[in-house]
Amino acid sequence: MFDFSKYELIIFDYDGVILDSMPYWYHISTEFILHKGKKPKDDLDDTVVYYLTHDVANKFIEEYDLEGGIDEVLKEMELFILDTYPSVKTRPNMKSLLERLSMKKKILFSSSPSKIVIPSLEANNIKDYFNKIYTAKELNISKYDDSGFEYITYDNNIPRDKILILDNDKDVIKTASKYGFDTIFIKDQFNEKEIEEVKNFVTAIYDVNCL
User: Fold this and answer.
1) Which of 122, 179, 186, 199 sits in a 20 to 30 Å window from 83, CA-based?
2) Full 3-state SS string of 155-188
3) pTM more than 0.90
4) Architecture of 9-20+89-210 per CATH?
5) What is the pLDDT of residues 140-177, one digit of tens each?
6) Rounded distance, CA 158 to CA 38, Å?
7) Domain 24-86 grouped into CATH 2.60.40
8) H/E segment holding residue 141
9) Which residues contact 26 (CB under 8 A, 6 or more apart)?
């Protein structure tokens, strides 16, 4: 069990850390094509890395004969997320961890927009566990360079060495570690191959169930 006692601020990533959503994102293309009444190719999910893009919308139009232009299909793809994402549940034992850290200041830092994150938090009854919610694009900051971590440090007025971040993205962990935060790399079924590299710069590596 990890010792959180020294930290004044704990930063949580959302997808794959709070939410058990990595399988959802991996299969989102297949689910959308099924939703449109088409038969997806067996390897579709392996060929789409970033779902909500113009290139993917165009791919769906060309390969699955979807009606409408790129912008129209892209809007349908986004609406599909808004309709289905709130049904994704938290990772096992996450609520008990948030309860255990109830006296700590906790923030959520997500790359997803608030229109996706907030309804999901509310559907899982966990929104009130967090003191603040930061969504990178809407604040014009990033999790992949110092801009996001500088913003959070300044906004919360807490020294870097008293801040801990939990994330399942090795590049976010690497950036946060270089910036001076302690870091926990959260393991999932999609990032196991990255563990050896992450050991070079992370504070700790955990499964959520073991925190």
Assistant:
1) 186
2) HHCCCHHHEEEEECCHHHHHHHHHHCCEEEEECC
3) yes
4) 3-Layer(aba) Sandwich (3.40)
5) 999 999 999 999 999 999 999 999 999 999 999 999 99
6) 51
7) no
8) none
9) 45, 190
